[in-house]
């Protein structure tokens, strides 16, 4: 390759030397060199190869890579090193072939370079002309410079020494004037220190900084004076002192925000160019203020209780310090803590509000000025402050929440009073509402804290109330508590939040009786922006509470809010007084003065314990509003109260009677009672459940009826008055729970509503079913009809003549009913007998009488048609007299006796079908009928076999 380049260089050099001419002043354009084709033609020999473009490209491509590596490559040496030391004929031939190959490559490269030079010949000519033009321009510039130097020399010769002296003196004068001005300025700078301190005392921070910056600028101007260096250092110290005072003043805005004061601070930081730094410092001060304020408030109460200023308290962690707060000062400390933290949050809120308004003003100003660079810088600064403030909302609230959370968790509140605990929760709920308005936080930490405290408190509170209820039940005399005829839970003070007001027509579960309704119209920060706080003691409702006691005046007769209040005024402990007439109950038999519906349609029958339970329900529902996280637990405890009351009423007034199934305990009521009984067994950690829920377990925590309550004795119908009060109180309690059902459904989670529906359907709804076992048991034990079947055995039923006079046993049975009715009237003077109770009692008494009559008829050995007529006469006489005793219409269960008497008239064929259809009679009664009415022995035996099979299949 070197040989190729050498040959090309030699060719071009020889051509160029022929055209070079001597250099002259006027440049000449050299003629272009001879073309490479001509050069190649001159060096061409007999071994020249033909030109072929395709072959030439292949030849160029076949050149070895070593030829292109660098300029120092020695191609001759490279080719010579290939020749071996000993040569033979074959190797000579190979060398000749390599020589031809190299010549062919040289010819191709030469041809290629010649072509490239020809293509660029026009550019070469053009560039040569430009060089010529540049040379002409340089000659013109040389002429101009020579003329300028000549003129300058002439000017120098024209000035005199005098004129130069005048100019020197004038210059000196100007220098002296500048010196005088500088001295005045230096004198002023030395006096600025006093003025700066005065401005700092006046809190004129922008003016002080402006003055200090101007002085610093002047110091920089006069820094060449030696007296200025000390002044410069002093001004720098003063500026740092101003920044320190600014930082202290900025920290004060965290607890007491003042717009004018804050505007001065922001103007000062703007002069310093540290608005972003000021914002960072402000957030640090807010965090520090929250910690310091919380610690100092709690420390103050701890020292107040301990009566000492022990330094160990000051070194404690906040969490440990909170555990030393006494329960007596717990609520005041919490209130003050919330108020102080509220002030911090309010200051932050006002800070944000000021920056938002200032941002709007700055945007309007920047849009009017339309200064590009300054406008962009201002926008970036405003954006940074806005983002910093928005992010700081959550951080500030988390710090506040953490302090209150630690305070709540440090003390066990399970033993505090109900009103105090409600107030604590009320304060925390207000703080949660503030947090939601402040930054939209859900306050999970506070919710978890109050949930933990609420569970602990409510568990203890509920256990205390259950024990208190047991005490009430054991001391209850089951006397009627005189209340208004329209009394409901809405008359109780605890349910005042459910009463419709002039503003709202629909009742709804409130947040709390004392919880603020702030935020519904105006937010906390708007309402209390100037004075007050959401944690100030709320005033009690001044509205007069509706009285619940019956009488001409309710004044002084209402129940107060204390848990231990259970007494009724003595003047109200009297017989039932009609509200309309003011008269006592009418004497005489039922129905002779007033009909049954009028006599037994007055107000509810309930006792003091029922009112106590209703009040507990009211308090529990109030607690739900502030114990939202454990709302379902509260509702569950409300159901336990009702279960306790239901089973207590049953154990007092129904468990002392005979078989419950015979007294009307349906399967639903039986299941409910058994479930409650099983729960009692589980509480006792018993391995098995009770086989019979009719038996009240020993030592279960369930109450025993008071010894003063007499539930036996025929004179007062085995405590019918007390049983009525207890049972009807339970029914009234169930009715009030039905009224409260929508409110309870509204406060519990949707996933828990099936439990509530089950409670109402399986427990509350069966409360009225307890009337039957209670009243039927009383009826069974209060009337003795055992002699009736014996007296009927003395009656002859095979008489031949139709009797016009009824049998004596009918009069005896009616006399028993007259006496029973008289005792009922005596009970009615003590307590109003509800229509339901009256109906159940008489229905069961009449049913017992009918069963005894049928039992007496079944004892007949023989019976004629005249005897059957006597049976009908006796029964009709009984019905007729019974209608004058009781007001029940129609007389119940009379079909039972009438169907049995009519069966005596049936023939043998119809008798068998009748027996199969009437399974309500006992086997003895059916057997007596068949033996008396069926004469054919074969038919009698067949029917008796049917009765026997039926008796075997009858459920036991």
UniProtKB/TrEMBL annotation:
Residues 718-948 form the Syndetin C-terminal domain. Residues 92-119 form a coiled coil. GO terms for molecular function: SNARE binding. It holds the Pfam family Syndetin_C. Keywords: Coiled coil, Protein transport, Transport. It comes from Holothuria leucospilota. GO terms for biological process: endocytic recycling; protein transport; retrograde transport, endosome to Golgi. Residues 60-354 form the Vacuolar protein sorting-associated protein 54 N-terminal domain. Residues 533-591 are annotated as: Disordered. GO terms for cellular component: cytosol; EARP complex. The lineage of its organism: Eukaryota, Metazoa, Echinodermata, Eleutherozoa, Echinozoa. It comes from the Eukaryota. Residues 557-569 have a biased composition (Acidic residues). InterPro entries: Syndetin_C, VPS50, VPS54_N. This is Syndetin.
């Amino acid at each position: 390759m070197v040989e190729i380049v050498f040959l090309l260089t030699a060719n071009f050099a020889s051509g160029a030397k022929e055209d070079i001419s001597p250099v002259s002043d006027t440049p000449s354009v050299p003629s272009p060199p001879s073309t490479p084709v001509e050069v190649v033609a001159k060096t061409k020999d007999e071994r020249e190869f033909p030109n072929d473009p395709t072959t030439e490209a292949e030849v160029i491509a076949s050149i070895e890579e070593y030829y292109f590596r660098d300029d120092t490559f020695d191609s001759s040496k490279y080719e010579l090193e290939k020749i071996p030391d000993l040569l033979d004929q074959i190797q000579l031939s190979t060398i000749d072939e390599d020589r031809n190959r190299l010549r062919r490559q040289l010819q191709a490269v030469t041809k290629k370079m010649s072509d490239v030079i020809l293509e660029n010949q026009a550019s070469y000519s053009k560039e040569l002309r430009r060089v010529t033009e540049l040379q002409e321009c340089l000659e013109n510039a040389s002429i101009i410079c020579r003329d300028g130097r000549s003129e300058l020399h002439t000017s120098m010769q024209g000035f005199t020494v005098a004129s130069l002296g005048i100019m020197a003196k004038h210059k000196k004068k100007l220098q002296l004037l500048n010196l005088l001005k500088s001295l005045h300025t230096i004198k002023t700078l030395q006096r600025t220190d006093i003025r700066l301190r005065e401005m700092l005392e006046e809190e004129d921070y922008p003016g002080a900084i402006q003055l200090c910056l101007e002085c610093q600028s002047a110091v920089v101007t006069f820094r060449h004076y030696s007296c200025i260096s000390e002044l410069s250092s002093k001004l720098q110290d003063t500026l740092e002192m101003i920044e320190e005072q600014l930082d202290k003043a900025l920290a004060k805005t965290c607890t007491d925000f003042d717009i004018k004061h804050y505007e001065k601070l922001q103007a000062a930081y703007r002069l310093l160019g540290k608005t972003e730094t000021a914002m960072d410092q402000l957030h640090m001060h807010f965090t520090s203020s929250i910690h310091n304020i919380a610690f100092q408030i709690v420390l103050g109460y701890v020292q107040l209780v301990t009566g000492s200023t022990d330094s160990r308290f000051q070194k404690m962690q906040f969490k440990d310090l909170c555990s030393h707060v006494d329960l007596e000062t717990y609520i005041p400390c919490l209130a003050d803590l919330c108020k102080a933290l509220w002030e911090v949050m309010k200051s932050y809120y006002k800070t944000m509000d000021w920056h938002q308004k200032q941002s709007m003003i700055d945007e309007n100003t920047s849009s009017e000025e339309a200064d590009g660079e300054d406008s962009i810088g201002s926008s970036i600064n405003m954006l940074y402050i806005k983002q910093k403030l928005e992010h700081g909302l959550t951080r500030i609230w988390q710090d506040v929440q953490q302090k209150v959370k630690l305070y709540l968790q440090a003390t066990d509140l399970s033993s505090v009073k109900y009103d105090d605990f409600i107030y604590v929760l009320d304060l925390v709920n207000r703080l949660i509402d503030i947090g939601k308005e402040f930054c939209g936080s859900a306050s999970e930490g506070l919710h978890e804290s109050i949930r933990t405290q609420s569970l602990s408190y409510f568990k203890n509170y509920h256990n205390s109330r259950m024990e208190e209820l047991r005490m009430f039940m054991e001391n209850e005399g089951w006397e009627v508590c005189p209340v208004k005829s329209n009394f409901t839970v809405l008359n109780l003070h605890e349910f005042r939040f459910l009463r419709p007001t002039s503003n709202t027509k629909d009742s709804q579960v409130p947040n709390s009786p004392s919880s603020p309704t702030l935020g519904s119209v105006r937010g906390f920060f708007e309402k209390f922006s100037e004075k007050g706080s959401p944690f100030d003691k709320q005033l009690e409702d001044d509205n007069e509470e509706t009285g619940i006691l019956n009488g001409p005046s309710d004044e002084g007769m209402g129940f107060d809010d204390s848990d231990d209040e259970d007494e009724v005024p003595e003047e109200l402990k009297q017989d039932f007084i009609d509200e309309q007439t003011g008269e006592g109950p009418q004497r005489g038999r039922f129905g002779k003065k007033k009909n049954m519906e009028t006599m037994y349609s007055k107000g509810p029958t309930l006792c003091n314990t029922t009112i106590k339970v209703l009040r507990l329900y009211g308090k529990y529902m109030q607690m739900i509003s502030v114990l939202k996280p454990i709302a379902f637990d509260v509702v569950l405890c409300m159901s336990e109260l009702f279960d306790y009351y239901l089973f207590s009423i049953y154990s007092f007034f129904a468990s002392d009677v005979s078989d419950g199934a015979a007294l009307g305990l349906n399967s639903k009521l039986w299941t409910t009672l058994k479930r409650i009984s099983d729960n009692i067994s589980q509480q006792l950690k018993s391995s098995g459940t009770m086989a019979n829920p009719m038996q009240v377990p020993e030592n279960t925590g369930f109450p025993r009826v008071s010894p003063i309550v007499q539930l036996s004795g025929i004179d007062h119908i085995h405590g019918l008055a007390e049983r009525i009060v207890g049972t009807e109180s339970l029914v009234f309690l169930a009715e009030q729970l039905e009224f409260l059902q929508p409110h309870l459904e509204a406060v519990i989670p949707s996933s828990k509503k099936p439990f509530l529906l089950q409670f109402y359907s399986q427990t509350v709804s069966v409360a009225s079913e307890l009337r039957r076992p209670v009243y039927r048991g009383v009826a069974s034990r209060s009337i003795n009809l055992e002699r009736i079947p014996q007296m009927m055995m003395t009656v002859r039923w095979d008489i031949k003549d139709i009797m016009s006079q009824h049998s004596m046993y009918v009069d005896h049975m009616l006399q028993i009913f007259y006496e029973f009715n008289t005792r009922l009237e005596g009970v009615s003077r003590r307590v109003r007998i509800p229509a339901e109770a009256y109906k159940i009692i008489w229905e069961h008494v009449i049913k017992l009488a009918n069963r005894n009559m049928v039992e007496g008829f079944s004892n007949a050995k023989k019976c004629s048609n005249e005897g059957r007529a006597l049976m009908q006469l006796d029964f009709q006489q009984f019905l007729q007299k019974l209608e004058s005793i009781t007001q029940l219409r129609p007389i119940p269960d009379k079909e039972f006796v009438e169907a049995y008497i009519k069966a005596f008239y049936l023939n043998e064929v119809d008798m068998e079908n009748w027996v199969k259809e009437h399974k309500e009679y006992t086997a003895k009664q059916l057997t007596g009928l068949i033996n008396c009415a069926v004469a054919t022995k074969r038919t009698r035996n067949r029917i008796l076999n049917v009765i026997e099979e039926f008796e075997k299949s009858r459920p036991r």
